[in-house]
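Quiz preparation item.
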């Protein structure tokens, strides 16, 4: 018998949105059950119902086979169900100890056993913090562990995690997923809410896919041979990628050569320390690192936003007219002119080209309209019209506009910083697919990302940057997430720069 079972759950929010539509879901003891779906699929709502935060419009919840109705999260916790929300629910000014004791009864607190339990759980979770320090000084990962400890002390049997890795970076996310497995092996039932297929596959014993409020299917991990099956369930479409990564032995001409580059930040600290690499025609060269290790300054100097101290940046450009395409991380500051229209932003980087400007600098609006339309269709940018100032679009749509513009510019070199951050699953997939397509057409791509999975999915080579240096360049065939993570953090003794 499953620990818990949800049957035919419906949730209609007061505004009339049907967020959950006849969903069924169960969790067994000792399993990691991934709840996978696009943004807005209803995952959080369904789990808030299971954890007593929301009342269902209809449907039933069973715990150990007995029907229950939860009045509150505390009530659900009495049955052993605890949820860790996307935003922390700890009280920042209170100490770790005070926080983990929230919700415990006087009886629990009196027991000497409590401190022993805390000690044991700290060890288990590898949480090495002073219990008296206030929670606000803890790192994101530590706060997560404190929340888990709190749930464990409250005797949770089911732990629900809502997109837990979205706020932690690459290697820490890997460790976090390992911890989920460890919790499951201790007998906890774990629910991992996620929109990342790779992440779900990495840890789950089973996965339930949600789409538009419905639970589409529940599959065992070993029934899933191809992740595209999950993608289709999530998106509700049949499609096959048109381009797959083609491993190539040899590349042609370098399009970008960086040699012994040294760059300082605004405070005069050397952030890029004698970095050398090349991006060649037709390859996707990944640059990965924990934020703050010099990637930002490196890209700023390549794109001309920051002056280098020494070293060389050489563009080996055969088409004289095309400056490199650039998808910046700072979308609003660098990527668009917020108060200009969608149309003007669509040609922001090229409006001086003959194609778009006639004599005396008069813009050719019909041509500009054409290209804008192409970008809008290509990237599915949602905008009421082309004349709307860009600042009124949502973040995701602005991102799509920039990506579309840069992908379609036709330059030989593309520098893409976190090009899929903030995009929904479908658009992110579309962007990756097009990066591969561009590379197959001969474009050289420098992809800066903190998402190890993304980098491994599309890159031919991956450079790890740490402390201002490139500490290792992997060929895609020899790279795996764990090793990359180790180089990002220098987590293993004996790893030295090379
Ligand atoms: N408090 C709310 N009031 C009204 N609608 C909501 C509320 N929370 C979520 N929704 C809507 O319900 C749907 C499902 O949302 P959610 O459960 O957050 O999905 P997911 O977690 O899969 O991204 C979305 O259309 C969302 O806009
Ligand atoms: Mg959610």
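Solution:
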């Amino acid at each position: 018998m499953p620990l818990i079972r949800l049957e035919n759950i419906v949730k209609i929010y007061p505004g009339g949105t049907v967020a959950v539509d006849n969903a069924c879901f169960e969790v067994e003891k000792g399993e990691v059950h991934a709840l996978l779906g696009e943004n807005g699929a209803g995952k959080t709502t369904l789990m808030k119902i299971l954890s007593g935060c929301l009342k269902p419009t209809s449907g039933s919840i069973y715990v150990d086979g007995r029907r229950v109705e939860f009045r509150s999260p505390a009530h659900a916790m009495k049955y052993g169900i605890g949820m860790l929300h996307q935003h922390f629910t700890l009280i920042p000014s209170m100490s770790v100890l005070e926080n983990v004791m929230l919700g415990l009864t006087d009886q629990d607190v009196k027991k000497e056993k409590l401190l022993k339990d805390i000690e044991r759980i700290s060890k288990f979770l590898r949480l090495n913090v002073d219990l008296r320090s206030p929670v606000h000084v803890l790192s994101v990962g530590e706060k997560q562990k404190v929340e888990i400890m709190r749930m464990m002390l409250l005797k949770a049997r089911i732990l629900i995690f809502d997109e837990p890795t979205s706020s932690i970076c690459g290697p820490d996310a890997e460790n976090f997923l390992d911890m989920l497995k460890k919790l499951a092996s201790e007998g906890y039932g774990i629910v991992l809410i996620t929109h990342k297929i790779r992440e779900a596959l990495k840890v789950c014993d089973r996965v339930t896919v949600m789409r538009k409020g419905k639970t589409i299917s529940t599959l065992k991990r070993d029934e899933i041979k191809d992740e595209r099956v999950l993608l289709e369930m999530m998106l509700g479409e049949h499609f096959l990628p048109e381009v797959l990564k083609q491993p190539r032995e040899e590349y042609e001409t370098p399009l970008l050569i960086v040699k012994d580059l040294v760059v300082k930040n605004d405070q005069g600290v050397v952030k890029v320390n004698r970095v050398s690499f090349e991006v060649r025609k037709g390859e996707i060269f990944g640059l990965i690192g924990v934020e703050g290790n010099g990637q930002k300054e490196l890209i700023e100097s390549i794109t001309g936003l920051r002056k280098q101290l020494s070293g060389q940046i050489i563009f080996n450009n055969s088409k004289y007219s095309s400056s490199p395409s650039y998808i910046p991380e700072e979308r609003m500051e660098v990527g668009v002119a917020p108060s200009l229209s969608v149309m003007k932003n669509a040609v922001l980087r090229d409006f001086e080209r003959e194609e778009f400007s006639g004599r005396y600098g008069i813009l050719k609006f019909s041509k500009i309209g054409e290209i804008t339309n192409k970008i809008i269709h290509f990237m599915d940018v949602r905008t009421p019209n082309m004349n709307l100032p860009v600042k009124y679009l949502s973040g995701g749509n602005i991102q799509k506009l920039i990506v579309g513009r840069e992908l379609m510019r036709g330059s030989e070199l593309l520098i893409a910083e976190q090009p899929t951050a903030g995009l929904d699953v479908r658009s992110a997939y579309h962007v990756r697919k097009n990066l591969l397509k561009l590379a197959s057409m001969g474009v050289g791509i420098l992809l800066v990302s903190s998402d190890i999975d993304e980098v491994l999915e599309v890159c031919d080579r991956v450079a790890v940057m740490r402390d201002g240096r490139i500490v290792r360049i992997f060929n895609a065939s020899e790279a795996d997430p764990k090793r990359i993570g180790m180089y990002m953090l220098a987590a293993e003794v004996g790893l030295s720069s090379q």
